[in-house]
Hints:
The complex is a heterodimer.
Chain A: H1 14-20, E1 29-32, H2 36-47, E2 54-58, H3 89-94, E3 97-101, E4 105-109, E5 114-117, E6 122-124, E7 127-130, E8 134-136, E9 149-150, H4 155-164, E10 170-174, H5 178-189, E11 193-197, H6 210-222, E12 226-228, E13 233-237, E14 244-247, E15 252-254, E16 257-260, E17 264-266, H7 269-273, E18 282-283, E19 295-297, E20 302-305, E21 312-313, H8 318-332, E22 344-349, E23 352-358, E24 365-369, E25 377-383, E26 386-393, H9 399-408, H10 414-417
Parallel strand pairs in A: 1-2, 1-7, 2-3, 7-19, 9-16, 10-11, 10-16, 11-12, 18-20
Antiparallel strand pairs in A: 4-5, 5-6, 8-17, 13-14, 14-15, 20-21, 22-23, 23-26, 24-25, 25-26
Chain B: E1 4-9, E2 15-20, H1 26-32, E3 51-54, H2 56-61, H3 67-74, E4 84-86, E5 100-103
Parallel strand pairs in B: 1-5
Antiparallel strand pairs in B: 1-2, 3-4, 3-5
Amino acid sequence: MHDPEANTRKPMNREAMKHELMAGPAAPVVIVGAGHSGVAVAAGLRARGWEGGILLLEAEKGTPYERPPLSKELLKDGAPDESAVLRKEKFYQDKRIDRVAGIAVDSVDRAGRTVLLSDGSRRDYHRLVIATGSRARALTVPGAALPGVQALRTRDDALELKRLLVAGARVAIIGAGYIGLEVAAAAAAKGCEVTVLEFQDRVMSRVTSAPVSHHFEQLHQRHGVRFVFSAAVTDIEGDHRAERVVTADGHVFQADVVLAGIGVVPNQELAAEAGLECRDGILVDGHGVTSDPAIYATGDVTRFTSPIDGASQRLECIQNAQAQADRVAAHITGQPAAVPEIPWFWTVQHGVRLQTAGVRRPDDDVIVRGNPAGGSFSVVYLRDGRVAAVDTIGGLADFRPARKLIARGDRMDPALAADPRVPLTEATLTGAVLNAPAPIHADPATARS
Amino acid sequence: MSNNKLTVIDREGSTHRLEWEPDQTLMEALRDNDLPVLASCGGTASCATCHVFLEREAFDTLGERSEDELELLVEAEGYQACGSRLSCQLDFSRELNGITVTLAPED
């Protein structure tokens, strides 16, 4: 995926770099989608000296904004309704990044290197970058379209939800993932009566282990949130608005507001209809190139091979949105990309932060480090004796060491790793070095399976 | 309010002079001037990719670092007890006019 040179960080001579770059082709780089990744491609192209045109197209109106605060700060009482913008308007002007907001791209004419926009106009592209992100997976049960049933993905979604979350409101949240739990915390803080309905038997089961799930369940329960596990929602009932949520076992939950937080699906339709290879995400290589060499894709919408362990994956996180954007900008300008960071994720619930480095798998060995009852602990996930991922809860001391250890592929001593008095970086099995298989390598072709 | 002047020494040792605008955090001023500051967390003191070193005099004019900021910094490459800051946590202030900021090495 990466040629070895692409991972070598060299000092950049900016003047030489600029000199080498062409003044820019007649047609611009057209970026579809102004989320984290699309904006990062535009900024990255200019930072790397791209002199050609850049056109950033976005279906939503307004200045492109940060998404993480939508389910956190923005929902709080007294918080301003404006979510933080990714870059100030002046930045786009200064960097000669043309933007059209409130317009959709209807189709791509690959042979003509043209996109057709929803206003009927056409735009030529030199390179096309698809950064259309993902959307909230829709509930499909009867009644899902009733007013009062909400998803949370856009700023408008968040503002509507904020309006509905008033003291005393009965809030049913379907799905105990990051979004569902962050909204549960915001709703509880506003004095809502919150019930979380989860199909699995614990919260955040997709992303973390049982000890972390239980820690957060107790945290929510202390704030008055009620959980119903193994709950399969079959209906949402109500005359003109959502009033009740019904589960398969016949239970009925009264609700004024229903939030569905059941995951996201990639917005790959534009690419699929243009004949680009897609499989639950647009398939891209290590440079973000799709099956058409003039078309890139980046961020939530992509599926790619992990440079760490060779797994086929979609990553729904800002770190990936930025890292892929950097690789796209690097490839378009013919420069080496920065070494990608280890993927990482975070959520904040009732003021307690869960931050994860790496991607855990359900069959990893689980080592609890520290005492959960004390409020601050970590969980180390070992795969073949090496750190695959680390959750930090209520403290970040292990976060950076975790990313280093994951990148290095050191073998760990489980007993030392469980002892919070031993720095994580010193909990390695140094004696086992001679017998250790090759460490994790940036090139999946030579990586261990 | 007028801009602050800022001198930045990048990871290759080159010096850049730039303007720090009143509505920018220090991280935004660095990033919007194309310096290689990743800021993956968008300025929430979660990732430490905007780690900078300040001169002692400037450092001492600032308030205490939050627990999250300090925990990330202590584990960072080249941590300086009286110099390391996450630039996303530094709002514009007159007192920081004319300071020199050094980008910390990447992990």
